[in-house]
Design goal:
The radius of gyration is 21 Å and the shape is globular. An eight-stranded parallel beta barrel has the order 1-3-4-5-6-7-8-9, surrounded by eight helices. Helix 4 crosses helix 5 and helix 7 crosses helix 8. It has a single domain (33-331), classed as Aldolase class I (TIM Barrel, Alpha-Beta Barrel). Strand 3, helix 3 and strand 4 form a beta-alpha-beta unit. The chain is built from eleven helices and nine strands. By secondary structure, the protein is of the alpha/beta class.
């Protein structure tokens, strides 16, 4: 049925009628946030990393293998069905070629085996990128020309993915933005009969100023590091669509947009482009801005968090990665 504005004539039509009372506002709400929409990112620190606090991200911490089970148990009780794991390793374990990334006993592989045993129904998503493991701080391996070597990097990412899947990961999320990473990983998974592994492709990950606190968390915050050669230009829109189409063709199951709040147009573009589910990552600086402004009483904390998530979902996101997930689950 074609929509028409012919009947929208005052006073027969008064838009405020269905805004006046809370119950009717809720009843006709077009967007509702639930715990089923949310993924909680979790940072897992190796035993050599002693500092659990995160100064740049208030109220969050780096979890050890000894206390991660308690945290996940709390999340499960709150109804959070999925977590995303990110490694924090000691500087001594980083290398030029990111060798620790393919260690079958690295901190994420250990964590996977632990969580899969204790929480068999938990959705576990693993980040696939080399920046926590490289001395350069880049998401890939640097060649002799001081450039990120795309083809060498995707081979390492594929081995990293296989190790994670063998350890119990059901969903891998390549966030590196290397060309051909999805098809390379998918082929390797198929060759080893891991045919049901889900790939969340960071199809639209932009070169952004909003990642700073995250890099502090993983302890690999190289000042003035430039990732423009592989992350998307923040000024571009069509390029994001192009990369998403490539990842769909290469075997991605879900498409990710990162960051979220300043890229809602891209979320909507990908939602209209594809039948695949769309994920959006509310990144570390988005979290910090809301936290810090609320502490200065610039706005209401709870209402602003919920508004931010509702806007991301309204734009078309089916899945939201957010550091607020645990708190929001309590409110809901």
């Amino acid at each position: 049925m074609q929509r028409s504005a012919e009947y929208l004539k005052f006073p027969l039509f008064r838009a405020r009628r269905i805004r006046k009372l809370n119950w009717i506002r809720n009843l006709v709400s077009e967007t509702q946030i639930s715990v089923n929409d949310l993924v909680q990112p979790i940072f897992i620190r190796d035993e050599k990393v002693k500092d659990k606090t995160i100064s740049s991200m208030p109220d969050l911490e780096r979890f050890s293998l000894k206390n991660i089970s308690k945290e996940v148990e709390e999340l499960c009780k709150l109804g959070i069905n999925a977590v995303a794991l990110f490694p924090v390793i000691d500087k001594s374990q980083r290398s030029f070629e990111a060798k620790e990334a393919t260690n079958p006993n690295n901190v994420i592989c250990k964590c996977l085996r632990l969580l899969r045993k204790e929480f068999p129904d938990l959705g576990i998503i693993c980040d696939i990128a080399l920046d926590p493991f490289t001395t350069s701080g880049h998401d890939g391996i640097i060649n002799k020309f001081d450039e990120v070597d795309n083809d060498k990097t995707i081979e390492v990412l594929s081995q990293m993915s296989i190790n994670y899947v063998k350890s119990g990961c059901e969903v891998i999320a390549p966030s590196d933005m290397m060309d051909g990473r999805i098809i390379n990983i998918r082929k390797n998974l198929e060759d080893q009969k891991y045919t049901d592994t889900i790939i969340i492709s960071y199809a639209a990950k932009f070169s952004s100023q909003f990642y700073g606190p995250f890099r502090d968390i993983i302890g690999n915050n190289k000042k003035n590091i430039n990732k423009n050669s592989y992350q998307l230009n923040s000024k571009n829109r069509i390029e994001a669509v192009k990369d998403a189409l490539a990842d769909i063709a290469e075997g991605a199951d879900i498409l990710m947009v990162k960051p979220a709040a300043y890229y809602l147009d891209i979320v909507r573009d990908l939602k209209e482009l594809s039948f695949l589910p769309i994920a959006a990552y509310q990144v570390s600086s988005e979290y910090c801005m809301i936290k810090n402004c609320a502490k200065k009483n610039i706005f209401n904390y709870n209402e602003t968090v919920l508004e931010s998530l509702s806007c991301i979902k309204r734009a078309g996101a089916d899945i939201i990665f957010s550091y607020f997930s645990k708190e929001v689950a309590k409110w809901l």
